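Obj.: predict assembly geometry.
Materials: sequence records (below).
Method: joint structure prediction, all chains together.
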Amino acid sequence: MFKEASIREPLILGDKISYHQISEEISRPIEGKANKLWWACFSVAVVAMLWGFGCLAYTVGTGIGAWGANKTVGWAWDITNFVWWIGIGHAGTLISAVLLLFRQRWRMAINRSAEAMTIFAVICAAIFPVFHMGRVWVAYWTMPIPNQFGSLWVNFNSPLLWDVFAISTYFTVSVVFWYLGLIPDFAMIRDRAKVAGNKMREMIYRILSFGWSGRLRDWVRFEEVSLVLAGLSTPLVFSVHSIVSMDFATSIVPGWHTTIFPPYFVAGAIFSGFAMVLTLVLIMRKVLNLEHYVTVKHIEYMNIIIMLTGSLVGIAYLTELFMSWYSGVEYESYAFINRFSGPYWWAYWSMMTCNVVSPQLFWFKKIRTNLVATFILSIVVNIGMWFERFVIIVTSIHRDYLPSSWTMYSPTWIEVGIYVGTIGFFFTCFLAFSRVFPVIAQSELKTIMKISSKVFKNKNENHHH
Amino acid sequence: MSTKAIHAIYDDDEVLVSAAKKIHAAGIKVKEVFTPFAVHGLPEALHEPRTRIAICAFLYGCTGLSLGLLMMWYFMIHDWPQDIGGKPNATLYHNIPAFIPPLFEGTVFTAAHLMFWTLLFRSWILPGVKPKNPDPRTTDDKFLVLIETEDTEGVSKLLRETGASEIKIVEV
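Observations (raw structure tokens):
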């Protein structure tokens, strides 16, 4: 059997780890009852979600005029939130697909929860452009449907339509990838319920597990499909945020019309996504007692990715500034001067501080292995990434070619309410997920128990001496 | 003539793989193995053929790409050509660069989904299907080798020698 170098830190801690122990610890939150803290968080999230639904209903009933967006600043709070949520989603696919191709074993403890995060984040993201259409009941007109339905064919030259295709592909493929991994884990819960004699739970998880029985042939196919899905998802995840960036880059608005956008948006997406994974996982490992599986080493690896992508984003900001000066185009130059010294200077400098300066703290091992510091910085990064999208969208269009149209934008409480509502929806889903679904891919984790767990590594060590 | 089935339980995946090699070498046909996770080395030990599902995925992807291109040509070039923003839709080869992003998405969409459904139907794992593992512990920490044979005594002896912890003989 393959043995990992002893110099590598173990990925599974705990002094008595076994296959059965992994099953026990991962099914505990599902089989047990929720504590008061969970109910408290869940109630707050549901209230926020309901408020958001109310604001959405008001928007549909009244019209888009309920928002602060105007003729000059046509995309504002909504598209900022759309890009922010889509970006957050990217870390899940990166962890489950890209790290699978790179054979990074540390992904196994966090891929399930990160993929769940992806799916909920993409749903939150989709709400914004769909409701910005105004007449949400004809949102299906973005699908390629015949002219007889009342509109012309969709325009495949438009990046907005590419986005419809990219996001629906991304969402559905992520769901499939996630569900495939869940099937054997649902089977484990089902069989435990069978042994315990819990008929109701056995029936629910039998349906969810699709009757999985773990036959040799099933596993061969399962592994092949996982690998090919990872191979398909890797270019997919890069394409999705590239296409989101093309919504801006293919326009002629100064500050949007830049070729650097696709890689810069992808780096930013991974950056914010890992920050959100950390926010969630730091709470999850504590509340569900999974510290043996999501170790400080996992946190450190993610912090290193945040440091790397944060620096990439920083380089992109500086490149943009340089190019606006070097191009010699006065509109382009003004767009950037206006960003850092115009009326929205505070948004620009919040973005710079949160995204470029704060992740540099992770160069210190003390900070990147400190859980409190990581938690605070993960939230700071997501605030910074929200401001990045706000800066790109609002400061570019509030003053462009025609000075007589220059104006300011501020959100109404309805827009803020929808945003808070999506956060509520996201946490409602995630909290429900953490009680119903196995939050760690146990069948995958079991494959590395003998390679990367502390107990087995020590055993191998002693064996050799 | 009644055939009997032996359910041999193993506690460890490494023992299982070495046992599988010995069972295969003894010329005994293993009907099925139930494991809680993908045991690496087990398909090779039992000379399980490779799956061709990735080839299917490639073909599905090609189908998605061709159908997508046909769709875009029909909508944009043939059925209702328009000139939006100074970008006329007169010829396919002029417009194809703009179609690359949605074509890529369409390819991935068809390849991923059809491959997933191929897995579900080939392995017959669908909502409502009854699980086939004879022992519920095989999704937790036990490994079950199922052999159908008439010579239960001889095979059981061999299985015990290879490290099986429990052996159960059932009527088929």
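Conclusions so far: The first helix of chain A runs from residue 19 to 31.
To do: check interface contacts against the pulldown list.
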